[in-house]
Amino acid sequence: MTVFASEMMGGYAGERVLVTGGAGFVGSHLCDRLLALGSRVDVLDDLSTGSAANIPLGIGRFIERDVSASDPLPDYDVIFHLACPASPPRYQADPVATFRTAVFGTVRMLEEAWRTGARILIASTSEIYGDPQEHPQKESYWGHVNPIGLRSCYDEGKRAAETVATDYRRKYGIDLRMVRIFNTYGPRMDPFDGRVVSNFIRQGLLGLPLTLYGDGSQTRSFCFVSDLVEGILRLGALPDEPGREAPVNLGNPGEFTIGELADIVEEVLGSSLGRVNHPLPSDDPRRRRPDIARAEHLLGWSPQVPLRQGIALTVENFRGRPEELLSDRNPSSAPRQGAPSR
Ligand SMILES: NC(=O)c1ccc[n+]([C@@H]2O[C@H](COP(=O)([O-])OP(=O)(O)OC[C@H]3O[C@@H](n4cnc5c(N)ncnc54)[C@H](O)[C@@H]3O)[C@@H](O)[C@H]2O)c1
């Protein structure tokens, strides 16, 4: 049996925890682990990109509402703030709502952390590095982001969220943690979220050719969701100390071209699929790879699940949801043939 360091630290047992975005892909896995660690978990989610089916049995309250709403909340010991659409077709469907969620939703949760003294962990993103001119990306890199592009509602929204969170720490001394999450995949991904892993697996299972944007030579790193959640839990369990608020990259440093990913999906499915090439979307980064030295040093963390194994686990999960492969539960916000190579 794997012994996770977060368990050895004994964190979370009996703590009252709020997970915003807990009906989403990452949030639902985080809830599972928190429940297993003995936390009392509530979920706040508006189900805009998540699904009630993802919410684990065993949580306390499900609070269905916009994360920015000012309605009162119970007191918590810990807040994991993940609520925000995360894939380009989803966040671009209503860019103003995305920016509001990223910024006002974060401010709302920071207010709550300040009011109650809860420690708060905020999910930021590798998107804050934009189309990076440094490779791999260290936390000290300030990024290369277009402030007025199609992705800016998300990229700049998350950058502003980091800014305001850091200022709450400076001004009010809240107990803050921030993770910059790089591409994560795994069971319970939305098959129509437009990310490259879900696109390929959905298309492959339906026997369709795989859609490649550009020539498929752009690279990405892919982190399996259990690895990500372990890193989040370890960071959230550390005692508060000066500097703890600085963002930590969490992702898998293994770098693959999109073409290589297509080959792996094909291999796992055991079928030969064609390829269809589409033009690269605007502001699509050419390369993305985390420098995880800070996470390794601070948390003793590094990803454990190899890509091929993670893809096989994800394929198995997708096979168990055949009806979801055929229809998008969020049709207004995602193109059928998927989108950028996230
Ligand atoms: N999955 C990744 O690869 C990745 C990469 C970088 C960052 N992140 C961050 O991790 C977090 C979770 O991402 P995910 O992949 O699980 O996405 P997801 O879309 O599956 O989950 C997001 C959840 O937030 C909820 N939500 C969205 N807007 C809301 C609002 N205004 N009020 C209340 N709930 C709202 C959705 O209904 C959904 O359940 C996000 O903050 C995202 O930016 C994820």
UniProtKB/TrEMBL annotation:
Subcellular location(s) of the protein: Golgi apparatus membrane; Golgi apparatus, Golgi stack membrane
GO molecular function: NAD+ binding; UDP-glucuronate decarboxylase activity
Major place of residence: Golgi
Stored CDD domains: UGD_SDR_e (cd05230)
Taxonomic source organism: Leptospirillum ferrodiazotrophum
Gene Ontology terms: biological process: D-xylose metabolic process
Protein name per Swiss-Prot or TrEMBL: NAD-dependent epimerase/dehydratase
Gene3D superfamilies: NAD(P)-binding Rossmann-like Domain (3.40.50.720)
Pfam families from the UniProt entry: Epimerase (PF01370)
InterPro entries recorded: Epimerase_deHydtase (IPR001509), NAD(P)-bd_dom_sf (IPR036291), UXS-like (IPR044516)
Domain NAD-dependent epimerase/dehydratase per the UniProt entry, residue ranges: 17-251
Keywords per UniProt: Decarboxylase, Glycoprotein, Golgi apparatus, Lyase, Membrane, NAD, Signal-anchor, Transmembrane, Transmembrane helix
